[in-house]
Design goal:
- With 270 residues, the protein is α/β, with parallel strands linked by helices.
- Helices cover 44% and strands 18% of the residues.
- It has ten helices and nine strands.
- The strands form two sheets. Strands 7-6-5-8-9 form a five-stranded parallel beta sheet, with helices on both faces. Strands 2-3-1-4 form a four-stranded antiparallel beta sheet, covered by helices on one side.
- α1 crosses α2 and α5 packs parallel to α6.
- The longest helix is centred in the C-terminal third of the chain and has 25 residues.
Amino acid sequence: MSRFSDYIQKTFSFSSWEADEIIAAMIKPIGKSIRINTRKITLENFKLHAKEQWWALTETDIPEVFLIDRDDTTIALGNTIEHVAGWFYIQEVAAAHPPYLLKKHIANHPDKILDMCASPGGKTTQLADYFPDSLIIANEVNRTRTPQLFDNLDRMGYDNIAVVSCDGRFFQNFPDFFDAVLLDAPCSGEGTAFRDSSIVDHWHEKNIDRIAKLQKQLMETAEAVTAPGGTLSYSTCTLNKEENERVIESAIYNLQSTMVEDKKNSQIDN
């Protein structure tokens, strides 16, 4: 029994065969999906163009995101002229949900948005598409990944994004500064096992504990820099509770503790 199988059986009360079914589904390859860059082409015009190219598009619950199936794959999707021209971004449907849900929960157009972990730029460009009049700060701590981020921003044609490279925890120096924050945190990547099944094979709870510690610190920073009335989105591409529910629970506890402390200080001042 693998460590990951043992973990999900204990955590979610699954049987061994249910755990095997889950792991089999996790490592199964998935089809391609794309997000249309509506700054360069309308959805209707892209659909017409796709039909002319004999591309089959299947709608998802995100209007600008489609599953795509092509009979002729002699040219890789990323090498097509449409991709090079920035008409679309190759993006998994799950990856497109955090910016989409962030947009749905924002009442007023934000002036400043922080994408704390930005590269390669899928979520950043999606935010730029949703909020063309906002300043978006795209942060990527790993400078070897910033060239890919710059390439995607240039290809997609967005001009309201500023790229910085620093430890995300640095932003705690700007409290209450951003109207919206997207934290797609570094994680163990269990949800990307369809790309590399060794992620499951090498899974270890000690690694999860280490990553979760960083996630909680980044989440504390994200809370601190989100302005009152602002919106914060937290996401990972992993499944375990330590990197998801436990991080949120810690954030809620910290927020409640801060509110209690502020109330006490207010009573003392009065």
